[in-house]
Amino acid sequence: MNTLYHYALSPFCRKVRLSLAEKKIEVGLVEERYWERDPDFMRRNPAGKVPVLKMDGMTMSDSAAICEYLEEAYPTPNLLPRDPKARFEARRLVGWFDDKFYHEVTAMLTGERVNRKVMGTGYPDSSNVKAGAKAIKYHLDYMAFLLEDRRWLAGNDMTLADFAAAAQLSCLDYTSDVDWNRSEAVKDWYAKIKSRPAFRSILADEVPGFTPAAHYADLDF
Amino acid sequence: MNTLYHYALSPFCRKVRLSLAEKKIEVGLVEERYWERDPDFMRRNPAGKVPVLKMDGMTMSDSAAICEYLEEAYPTPNLLPRDPKARFEARRLVGWFDDKFYHEVTAMLTGERVNRKVMGTGYPDSSNVKAGAKAIKYHLDYMAFLLEDRRWLAGNDMTLADFAAAAQLSCLDYTSDVDWNRSEAVKDWYAKIKSRPAFRSILADEVPGFTPAAHYADLDF
């Protein structure tokens, strides 16, 4: 049986869960309190982070490398386009959400509000929360700009870039940090991706002590 | 003419420069003081970072996406293995050096010692320098562990993982932050990669106001 060691509000785990589900690869989920650096877990994964995927005789870490592996070993359905330039654009946006969006927004909002308490690292830092609330506006506007002449973020087909973005936004939506009224295009895009069967397990996530926003799992939000 | 907007001591630019040179793709280098957020540069690259590569009618950012593009559009020589599992291992290590190693080591040492002064953000933070000096030992040991039964970091062939690692280490070597006596295997590996023609332009880099370590460009260090 394939096993994914994960943490519910990790956008990187969510990105991998979406890829696995879209490709119809069954996987057992094991919640991993990775910040406690359990020796068994550290042996499986010297980087000490989630996701870790046990599959095909490997113990894999690094969500970007995992998604590329899934794409090559399980190409149906394709989550990257065929043309190298279109593939570049999808990967550029995966990097944008995994790196820039995560550090500027998700770490500052969901990270401060939930993870600090769960991990026992103190109270939310209000200057970080303020910076995150400001940055998300810019990022939503950038997404709206991309969606002006594209059906999905990287072009006219759904790609890993949409999963990378939806993984971040769904964490932020759990903590009511997304203003869905800011852009009709972004809201429509999220409604489309949220209604996919691959999204179901993510909408069922619950972190003890933190109730998700009322509309979190609602397909008409 | 292809153009790479770069900053000499950015490991991500160095990784792309090594890929380009190994594939014999000619490129003009333009030094970009990206932290000054020049409006022209920001228009080319909304993420506001380097490297940015103008090539094949595209303006590309994100070093990981750029390297994957180069690999697909210019496959000779291959810098990723053919087998999906071996490709996973190479990409996992690229992620390790780009993300973990960079944040734990390069940002703490070269970042504090040089970039702060160049970018005018104050004096080095000595607790960061201390943390980086401690972390590099662990990372050199991890590399030595990998090299115990591999010729290169990800297996028996040279891959992007070696370039990702050498890009970080060469920045640290500029500021004399690598103890090459810690592991014979790591030193031998670096000597091999440092002597490749692709490395020449990196060994000629100079940042005004910071003289490189005496052995920086020496192939017998």
UniProtKB/TrEMBL annotation, chains A, B:
InterPro entries: Glutathione-S-Trfase_C-like, Glutathione-S-Trfase_C_sf, Glutathione_S-Trfase, Glutathione_S-Trfase_N, GST_C, Thioredoxin-like_sf. Residues 1-78 form the GST N-terminal domain. It comes from the Bacteria. Pfam families: GST_C_3, GST_N_3. One of its GO terms (biological process) is glutathione metabolic process. Keywords: Transferase. Signal peptide: none annotated. GO terms for molecular function: glutathione transferase activity. Homodimer. This is Glutathione S-transferase. It comes from Yoonia litorea. The lineage of its organism: Bacteria, Pseudomonadati, Pseudomonadota, Alphaproteobacteria, Rhodobacterales.
